[in-house]
Amino acid sequence: QVQPVESGGGSVQAGGSLRLSCTASEYTYRSNCMGWFRQAPGKEREGVATIYRGSAVTYYADTVKGRFTISQDNAATTVYLQMSALKPEDTGMYYCVADSQCYAEIREIDFRYWGQGTQVTVSS
């Protein structure tokens, strides 16, 4: 069972930056793809970005392209989400996810392993 663990959430003013981190309890084919979802209060969960561990292949939601960057450390054991030019609508709970494969369309159904989430709050 892969268990992603997030860290790095917090509060920031609009226009600011935050970086989230995620590690997984195991690094096997079940965590080949790691990424992030978010859920704002009263809204459905949204896929944000994913990355194939050990490669440069990444996917982004249109809402965050050009502002968020997903990356990994050299050992491909920690995945980061660098969030810049933050907006109040980026506020929500951010979840790290893992599974065996990434797809261009980031869908909940494709991820079996979820972290507990870390809160991001952007004030105007």
| Terminal Cα span | 39 Å
- Structural class per helix/strand content? mainly beta
Distinct helical segment count? 0
Strand content: over 45%
Helix content: under 10%
Largest sheet: 7 strands, mixed
Count of beta strands: 11
- What order do the SSEs take from the amino end to the carboxyl end, as H and E? EEEEEEEEEEE
Can you characterise this structure?
By secondary structure, the chain is mainly β. Helix content is 0%, strand content 48%. It contains no helices and 11 strands. Strands 2, 4, 5, 6, 9, 10 and 11 form a 7-stranded mixed beta sheet that branches. A 4-stranded antiparallel beta sheet has the order 1-3-8-7, with no helix packed on it. A hairpin with a 6-residue loop joins strand 4 (33-39) and strand 5 (46-52). It is globular.
Briefly, what is this?
By secondary structure, this protein is mainly beta. The chain has strands at 4-7, 10-13, 18-24, 33-39, 46-52, 58-60, 68-72, 78-83, 92-99, 113-114, 118-123. Strands 2, 4, 5, 6, 9, 10 and 11 form a seven-stranded mixed β-sheet that branches.
